[in-house]
Design goal:
359 residues; alpha+beta; TIM Barrel; Immunoglobulin-like; 18-stranded mixed β-sheet; 8 helices
């Protein structure tokens, strides 16, 4: 397989970000991103204006982030060429879809797109000027969840004591995905395939500290060194090739939709080279795959390869069933269930794989 590393969930001057598309992709190149996915709020103007293309070795894919009239149920929408539905202006000046979350999730799917719930478990009350934007429509048939969002974790955990430290060191303060998000994700996968991505939610906001210092607390270039989603493709992509751009873009989107990917906080290591496989009945499966367990005389052999020494956890149906430090792991199983891998460094989350489901 061929592995490509991308940053997902960012905003430009086409919505509430401070950077132009050209600036964002300049930083994408400088930080070695294979692809970046722009998700401005309720618009695809970047695509309409011709910005979806190669920028040297980095591909820009344009989606959008939609929300309801309560400015909740944010949905990172991918795979469409235009924004669906109609919108109204909310009291805060933002737009909201007149459709309910259940309706727009279904309409996205009906039009050939897919999406991920953004920052699903925000709950903060300590920052009135930055209210939470949780996902509440859990009966909607979403494709997947954004299980790790850099900006959401950063702001949810901020208080008066750590505020300055978090402003000065926005990467160091990130620990791991929200436990209840992981728990819900595992529970959903026991019923149906629900995939996951990691996002940065980059806006490059500028804040005034101590009354006169203006600090850009989330520069794009900094957050591109944070949470990424790495995808696996069966064949190689040739960078900066306009002739194959559309085809290559669809392959990346398909990998994200099907969970052929893992989430990595590159602040602790790039993570390239991570693999999680299963062998069963003379066939090899990888993340995002489903195994039909129809021969109980055969064991399922699970293997994980880690590019650096870390604490490896095998998660089955939401429960850690094995944990040890290693760079290479092997298990066998004769049980149906959902299996995924977590890798930790110094009690901080590093790699979180999508599931291999045994049904």
């Amino acid at each position: 397989m061929f592995e490509y590393s991308g940053a997902i969930h960012m905003h430009s001057t086409y919505s509430d970000g401070t950077g132009s598309v050209e600036d964002i992709m300049k930083y994408a190149n400088e930080t070695g991103l294979d692809f970046a996915i722009l998700t401005d709020h309720n618009n695809m103007k970047a695509k309409d204006n011709g910005y979806e293309k190669w920028y040297n070795n980095s591909m820009l894919i344009v989606g959008y982030e939609m929300n309801d009239l309560q400015n909740k149920n944010h949905y990172l929408t991918l795979g469409l060429d235009k924004v669906i539905g109609s919108y109204e202006i909310l009291p805060d000046g933002e737009l909201g879809s007149i459709l309910t979350a259940q309706e727009y999730v279904k309409k996205v799917s009906d039009n050939g797109g897919f999406g991920f719930t953004a920052h699903p478990h925000e709950k903060r009350k300590h920052l009135p000027e930055h209210p939470p934007y949780p996902w509440e429509a859990w009966d909607a048939e979403v494709t997947g969840l954004e299980i790790w969002n850099h900006m959401s974790e950063w702001i949810e955990g901020m208080n008066e004591k750590n505020k300055l430290q978090r402003f000065l060191h926005p990467l160091r303060s990130i620990i791991a995905p929200e436990p209840r998000t992981l728990k819900l994700w595992d529970e959903l996968n026991e019923k149906r395939k629900v995939t996951a991505i990691g996002g940065i939610d980059a806006h490059a906001h500028k804040q005034t500290i101590m009354g006169f210092y203006e600090v850009e607390i989330f520069p794009y270039k900094v957050l591109f060194k944070s949470i990424r989603t790495n995808v696996f493709l069966d064949t190689e992509i040739k960078p900066n090739n306009p002739q194959t751009f559309h085809h290559d873009k669809l392959r990346i989107l398909e990998a994200l939709k099907n969970g052929r990917s893992f989430i990595v906080n590159t602040y602790h290591g790039k993570g390239k080279g991570f693999r999680f496989f299963a062998d069963y009945n003379n066939k090899t499966y990888t993340v995002g795959d489903e195994i039909v367990y129809d021969n109980p005389d055969k064991k399922i052999i699970l293997r994980a390869y880690i590019p650096e020494l870390s604490k490896v956890r095998l998660i089955k149906d939401g429960v850690c069933i094995d944990e040890f430090e290693s760079m290479e792991c092997i298990w066998d199983s004769d049980e149906k269930g959902t299996y995924r891998i977590e890798c930790w460094k110094n009690d901080k989350g590093w790699i979180f794989s999508n599931h291999i489901r045994v049904i």
